[in-house]
Amino acid sequence: MGQPYTPAWHTREEANERAWLDDWARLHLIPVQTERAPQAPSRALTAAGRH
User: How far apart are CA 14 and CA 17, in angstroms?
Assistant: First the structure.
């Protein structure tokens, strides 16, 4: 029993699947915008000058 699909068919199917997945990701995977919280001064800076 020979292979029913040609290399060209496989290439076309892979391209179609990749395009479908790219479209799906664009619609469903919204980039998350994160805001950076203000950073507290480090312990070394707050203790500076104290002995």
Answer: 5
